[in-house]
Structures are given as structure tokens and as C-alpha cells.
Amino acid sequence: MLSGVPNLFIAFGYTNASWTLRSDLTARSVCRLLNRMKRDGHDVCTPRGDPSVEPRPVMDLISGYVKRSEAMLPKQGSRPPWRVPQNYVRDLAVMTFRRIDEALEFRKAAS
Fold first, then answer.
1. Where are the alpha helices (DSSP H) in 41-107?
2. For 95-106, what is each residue's pLDDT tens digit?
């Protein structure tokens, strides 16, 4: 099951293209998500757990330094929306037009 820290965002770039291309898409998606939360009066957003999604390394690299630190790095999922396809054009379309709440849970903060 996925778990997360509410409202914590991590930007990872592409390993096969400019790092900032993916980071920019992530930043735009975060703004889109925060705007939706503000519009709907939500304070907290967390990933919705799905037992069919298997954790995978965030970087599909075989370099020694990546393999040695793999346990400490964030993970991605085995399928969308938790999988980073390493394809800017696909990500641009998906991160612009896919439902932002597809695998997320929203709530108001506890008083």
C-alpha cells in the first residue's frame, strides 16, 4: 500500500533527457493540484493506496551509485499514474489533461 506525507512534493527529472523538463511538469502539476484543493476547500492530500501497484526504483539506471542508494531513494509505481514513463511528450499530455484526483484522497485538516 502506498503511504505518504500529506502535501509533500518531490520533483524528479528525466534520466534520459533534460532534468528540468520533468521538474517543470511536476511544478505545474503541483500548482494545478493546490489550486484544486483551494477551490474545493481541502487542506490535505495523500495518495490512495492500491495493493496492485508494486514499488519500483524511481530511476531505471544500473550505475553503481544508483544501485547502492536505491533503498534510500523515493519509489515509483509499477503502473500509471505512479509510473514515470521517461517520455516528455506523453507526460506533457497526461500531466496536463488527466484527472488530478485520480489516485488521491482529499480532506480538511483536523481542528
1. 64-69, 88-97
2. 999 998 889 999
Residue 38 and residue 45: Cα distance in Å, rounded? 11
C-alpha cell at 101: 484526483
> Do you know the residue count of the chain?
111
Side chain identity at 51, as an amino acid letter? Answer: P
Q: Which CA distances in Å does 59 have to 15, 25, 85, 91?
A: 7, 17, 11, 16
For residue range 24-36, what is the model confidence (pLDDT) as tens digits? 999 999 999 999 9
The whole-angstrom distance between residue 9's C-alpha and the CA centroid of its chain comes to 8
C-alpha cell at 52: 496492485
The model's pTM is: 0.81
In angstroms, the CA 16 to CA 86 distance is 7
Q: Where are the domains of the chain?
A: 19-107
**Phi, psi at residue 99, to the nearest 5°?**
-55, 130
Q: Which secondary-structure segment (H or E) carries 55? A: strand 55-57
State which amino acid sits at residue 102.
Answer: E
